[in-house]
Amino acid sequence: MSSHREAPEISKDPVADNTDVYAFVSPKKPTHVTLIANFIPLQKPDGGPNFYEFGDDVLYEIKIANKGKATADVVYQFRFHTEIRNKKTFLYNTGRINSLGDSQWNRPQFYSVTRIKNGRKTVLGRDLRCPPVNVGPRSTPNYEESLGSPARHRLGMRTVFAGQRAEGFHVDLGAIFDLGTLRPFAQAHLVPSAEAMDGVDSTKTYNVHTIAIEVPISEVSRYGNKPTDAMAPGAVIGVWATASRRKSRILNAKTGKTEGHGPWQQVSRLGSPLFNEVIVPMAEKDKWNVDSPSGDKAYAKYVNRPELAGLLPVLYPGVFPNLAKYTKPRADLNAILLTGIPSGVVPGFQNYTGPVESDMLRLNVAVPPTPMDRANPLGLVAGDPAGYPNGRRVVDDTTTIQLRAIAGLTIPLVDKSFTPDGATSKVTDGTTNENPAYKDHFPFLGAPNGGYETKPGSSMTTSSP
């Protein structure tokens, strides 16, 4: 699920690998929208001495479409550069890091932010400081107060952050990719094994690298305003993120480093969670990563007849009899994932971006935000229109939402003759985020897990009889 290792080639290049994209109206600042793109999946917090960091040779971008063509109308670009202060040590830090400018931090990162709008480039900020990774209480004491919070930078009416954060996405990867096991339904599986049990959060205690920017809605909306009518076409924006590398990469034998040459080539992209991970066949995943959302009509056939929807009745015999008999193209998934939901489907709501089929998060910025402490993690399908698939908040349980949608829960939105199977509303991978990973303010993802505090996982060996 999501996009942590979703395609063969990008899984070999984690520094450029999108993991999750979020877009939501800021709950405490409803005149602004928060855009988040996470990279570098499945970071073990204790992975030193060369800890995780953004790539100096990667162009990171968050893109917004607001004219219904699935092409970028507003782009925020992020470029990073790294310094080595002490070239005589192998250590990330030679003492306590008490501030972002502390000289005992040996490998600080800095970045610039550039906006492209109507073809015009504007540099919004230069030499902005990233925080260090969370090494542990001796190396990075009082992490959030001394390092995390000071790394939030004001750029006029905008706020920006780039650095390590706690992983906010939760999923039972081990079970799902073991022939589609959902631990709460394990006894009903075609290959029954253990008794029903809660899922195991595969990303618990892991970190990601986050790029987050909070901007006025008027800066990204079609008409340059703050829309108030949720049914107006100009109220909806499409959001996705990309990572690009130079087309040519050459190893410099003198420095031992790879150098990029030539124009930028997109190597990774992400809009809605799930799309490339589960919808697109393996043979086409790498191509999808270099394509533009405007060309996603080529992948519509996989949305209209998703492989997983056909597998569920086979893997769980007798659990999804109605889904097994449903042979129509999945117009519900096409709307959710490729066009947005048009008016008339959900009373008082729409996030339709037009007929161009494209993978983007679609956010209706006129829908008021729900306070974080009252947000329903099941989003729109649970009656909270501020949640996924209306954009995506960090608290949204997209794994459960999408599993239930694929299992048929959303078919009645477009086909009243279909009755979802009784199990559909109970489908889940059984996980919840057990970490206090969310904040009620920007950048919304919590302080990263520390390398010293993180407990190693357990292992199990199975031997042949």
From TrEMBL:
Disordered as annotated region, ranges: 420-439, 444-465
Positions of transmembrane segments: none
Pfam families per the UniProt record, alphabetical: DUF4331
Comp. bias intervals (Polar residues): 425-435, 456-465
InterPro entries to which the protein is assigned, alphabetical: DUF4331
The protein's name in its UniProt record: DUF4331 domain-containing protein
Biological source species: Nocardioides panacis
